[in-house]
Design brief:
This protein is of the alpha/beta class. The chain is built from twelve helices and 17 strands. 50% of the residues are buried.
């Protein structure tokens, strides 16, 4: 359905995490996120910019995303006649990098168009291969191994189908060995967030002992080529995350045999249009994909649920219940999992959940209207 964006509202919110989350590049206690609301014909679509508070995962952070959306993306889409939401990404494609900022507005336009068409977002993007998506959890680096084991036990008891643990040098082989002793049968993977180099090949080869589903992004965030010899040296599949920002890069990585699995994150690739292209490239080459997470609030989480209904999302992703991260979420109802470790899709128009506007106002630290 053709539409024009009449107004854009930016909000920066701050939400404390229920429990700190630590990766190889630091520990997070609260999230500061930019929300994007696009309005047309009295209808609003919502998006979430998924970058972190610091430029550690990639080059983006909360303050940079605010400026990119306000000063560069918004002027290029406001009042522009779009034939469909699939045309939105091209309007800012010449902006180098900053996919998460660009993607926050792009996904809002997909949500808007779905609402204008009165259809659920998962249907609008061409999903629906499954009515319940399989869920896994991502567990950060803990203070002690017993603390990690206790958290894994809690998540397994809650029915989650896959456990991902963060690793880094000094918190890897011996830790995973203890996990496997206590949980020999669970689907287990390790996420390195670029903490290693090719000099660590012999050390990383030790992880083959633990029949992991995959090792996620062991080498540099912008490195595809060095993953080729590493994958050749390992029995465990490598999953690429940070270094796959487009369908073209996914195709390069697959052609070079740099990985056996790819993690698709909406923000990292700039929104639904490119995420679908990455999905299609992987599907054509029989490379399974799964949906990664960025400690999203409810809007981003709901978008991830829609994305994960595309057919090649055959592995449990990082989409989990709101309560794992937030005492109170910004959507109503909160995202919940079934006892089988799945999340059911919703048939409401758009991303399927309501916005808790009162709570949203309470946690907003700045707001700007662009018209």
């Amino acid at each position: 359905m053709p539409f024009q964006i009449e107004k854009i509202v930016l909000r920066q919110i701050r939400m404390p995490l229920v429990h700190f989350f630590e990766t190889s590049f630091g520990r997070t206690y609260e999230r500061s996120m930019v929300l994007v609301e696009v309005q047309s014909g009295g209808v609003s679509g919502w998006g979430e910019v998924t970058c972190g508070e610091n430029p550690f995962y990639n080059e983006e952070w909360t303050d940079s995303a605010w400026l990119i959306v306000k000063d560069f993306v918004a002027p290029r889409v406001l009042k522009h006649p779009f034939q469909s939401a699939s045309d939105v990404a091209a309007r800012s494609a010449h902006i180098r990098g900053h996919n998460m900022a660009r993607g926050g507005l792009e996904v809002a336009c997909w949500d808007l168009e779905a609402r204008l068409n009165n259809v659920p977002l998962w249907q609008h993007i061409g999903g629906g291969a499954r009515k319940e998506i399989p869920c896994g959890v991502s567990i950060g680096i803990q203070d002690t191994v017993p603390q990690l084991l206790k958290k894994i036990e809690t998540e397994v008891n809650d029915g989650y189908q896959r456990i991902k643990i963060k690793i880094k040098p000094g918190w890897d082989v011996d830790v995973i060995r203890e996990v496997r002793k206590q949980f020999p049968q669970i689907k287990l993977m390790a996420d390195a967030n670029s903490a290693y180099t090719l000099k660590d090949i012999d050390h990383l080869r030790k992880l083959d002992e633990f029949y992991l589903m995959m090792i996620e992004q062991p080498l540099a965030h912008d490195e595809i080529i060095d993953h080729v010899p590493l994958q050749a040296a390992l029995q465990t599949p490598i999953c690429l995350d940070e270094c796959i920002r487009s369908a073209h890069q996914a195709e390069q990585a697959i052609r070079m045999k740099a990985c056996g699995i790819i993690n698709i994150k909406l923000g990292r690739v700039g929104g639904f249009t490119e995420a679908k292209r990455v999905h299609d490239v992987c599907q054509a080459h029989n490379i399974p994909v799964w949906c990664g997470g960025m400690l999203e609030a409810g809007i981003g989480r709901a978008h991830n649920i829609a994305l994960a209904t595309l057919p090649n999302f055959v592995l449990p992703g990082d989409v989990s219940a709101s309560k794992r991260y937030w005492k109170q979420d910004i959507i109503q109802p909160a995202v919940e999992t079934t006892p089988n470790g799945t999340i059911a899709t919703r048939d409401n128009p758009g991303f399927g959940y309501g916005i808790d506007l009162a709570f949203l106002k309470e946690i907003t630290v700045r707001e700007e209207h662009i018209a």
